[in-house]
């Protein structure tokens, strides 16, 4: 399946300046679908072209991948003060 997104030229230029927009959009789609449990880890990996033998888990806040789940990590609350 091919998905096409229409963007205004100035916004497309802003995205293009920061790297490969197509790859970035694909990564965001895969991660979001995995978080919502719409895709399994294997499906998300396949979508991104990653072999199944790659590390299993992304550790939030550390920018590193680990092969074993972290039992000590707890999400930090996010506060917005208006």
Total helical elements = 3
Q: Tell me the fraction of residues in β-strands, as a range.
A: 5-15%
State the order of secondary-structure elements, H for helix, E for strand.
HHHEE
Task: Give the spatial strand order of the biggest sheet.
Answer: 1-2
Shape: elongated
Radius of gyration: 16 Å
Question: What is the quaternary state of this protein?
Answer: single chain
Task: Characterize the largest beta sheet: strand count, sense, and whether it forms a barrel.
Answer: 2 strands, antiparallel
Determine the fraction of residues in helical runs and give it as a percent range.
25-40%
Q: Provide the number of structural domains.
A: 1
Total strand segments = 2
Structural class: mainly alpha
End-to-end distance: 42 Å
Low-confidence segments: none
What is the typical, i.e. mean, pLDDT? Answer: 74
